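Worked problem 6 (solution included).
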Amino acid sequence: MTVEQPPRDATTACLEPPSTLSPSKVSAFKNCALSFRFSAIDRLPEPPSEPAMKGTTVHRALEFLLAEEPADRTPEAAQGHLRTALEEMRTSREWAELGLDDERSAAFEADTETMLGRYFQLEDPRTIEPVGLELMLTSEIDGVTVRGIIDRLECDADGSLVVTDYKTGRAPRQSQEQSKLGGVHFYAFLCKETYGELPSRIRLVYLGRDPQVISTTPTEQSVRGLRNRVAAMWAAVERACEHDDFRPNPSALCNWCAFKQYCPAFGGDPDEARAVAVQLHTDT
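Solution. The predicted structure is:
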């Protein structure tokens, strides 16, 4: 179901498109254009969530672990790095905003320990040869800057590049696997642009319930397809900004949306979000 928005007056000023596109922004625009506007154009802050912060903590511990010499990448070392990552997290503003009591804080820590333990069920970190960890890559597609942070870029036994992305949520159903690989195809494109080499594999390592690894082989054709899709997506973003025409797309994802109070699908007014954004960015 889609919700129509009333037409804007012809004198309405154009909105400024975001300066870059990333896999998360592409996904956000595809899922709900209005939510994309709130986050990427109005730049409204989103409250922290426990699942996202657990993911950040586990990513950080794995970053520390893979920076060690291979022989030192043990489960015991991983737990030590997790404690360091948890200490970092607990000093953050986001942690304070969560307002966890002692019981929930202990559950948070236990969940991250469990996810980190699952990692060792899926691969032996001593065999990994990292090229980069939490690696930012940037390129251009038809004049728009695209960028992404790769959790892990490595060389396999043949010297070929492999992209690995950690996921701390539940693994997708088999029918959803290809759609979930879209983001790592994006990273394959960035590797090709940066290093002149297409990765031999792109992998999603799921550390939630039912831990598993999903992988595929990118091709020149898949990279061309991604380039075309991103170019078309950017053209759609520019048109939406030109006419201030961002429409909500109600779905199950609305249950986790931080902007429901401004959404007309739930009785909200997007103009209120604009006013909040103007005030927020004027104050800063």
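Discussion: The two ends are 37 Å apart (CA to CA).
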